[in-house]
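Morning. Coffee machine broken again, so started the prediction first thing and wrote up yesterday's gels while waiting. Chain of 340 residues, entered below exactly as on the submission form.
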Amino acid sequence: MNIPSRSTPGRTAWISVLFALLTLACGLLALRVGPYDIGFSDVFRLLLGGKHSTDESMRAVLFDIRFPRMLIALLVGGGLAVSGAVFQVLLRNVLADPYILGVSGGASVGALIAIASGLSSMFLALQPLLAFVTALIVVATVYRIGLRGKIEDNTLLLSGVMIGAFLSAIILGLVSTMDRPVRNALFWLIGYLGNATMTEVLLLTPGVLLLVIILFLYAGRMNVMALGAEAAGHLGLSVRRQQTLLYVLASMLTALVVSFAGAIGFIGLIVPHAVRRIFGPDHRLLIPVSFFLGASFLIISDLIARIVIAPTELPVGAITAALGAPVFIYILRRKSGPHS
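Came back before lunch.
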């Protein structure tokens, strides 16, 4: 593995701002485009608090449907991309991502239990809560199975795949017991943002931002860990402690966003890989750029899901899979071992 190239604070700042502006542009486009036509001038006017006698339906579409959906896509896409970046440095493998490690499957089981039992219809917050709890249980299980005195990359990755296969059987069993909620459950399994509300945005935002900021603060240590456990130990880093902490933080971030949006795949795989290829492996730049690029990618993917066969909507996970699968195959063919 190569020593990470250094990014100056100025370079990190202006590149991050550039990608933040890209995310802003994608967000505005998502607010503008849809079956109900809202011009950019109307979007800006309504966002700035402007009013007009004919605005009620337009205001409802913008603030009750598109705005929370766009914000959820921003938070979920950014969170998954950052989690993927952390998992890839921990396992030193470009094929590592939250979906493959079984975290998404764990959250899916909890959400389906809430749907199948009817708990989510009585109290909506129970669905993400149960999804979060079961995802953390899977995180702990995979970690214990894969632990052999240190976090061994291939063992942990294979443990996640094994647990994911077991969870798939449970998921199929849960879905087979449902009647009317089946369509919603299947959409959630693939990843769906159509039910987003501002209440969910307010619940999700603090946790995602806090975890992303904490992981960014550990970027320098991730750079040292990227050199390998032995080299990092010689440089005075407590490798085992840092690995465990980062694994828990990245898993919590994944569980949190999946519990609200469903099992959306490939973002945590392809986005950090693309950023690393373009800007290098310095995590002080990789983390913020992955967040904004992941957010932009999911916002645009959800926009495509809304309009490609309008008025029918596709689950956004179908779009990310269609876009991500070819990239996954490309990465797999080029490099199936540790990333450089």
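The CA atoms of residues 31 and 286 lie 28 Å apart. Going to sketch it on the whiteboard this afternoon.
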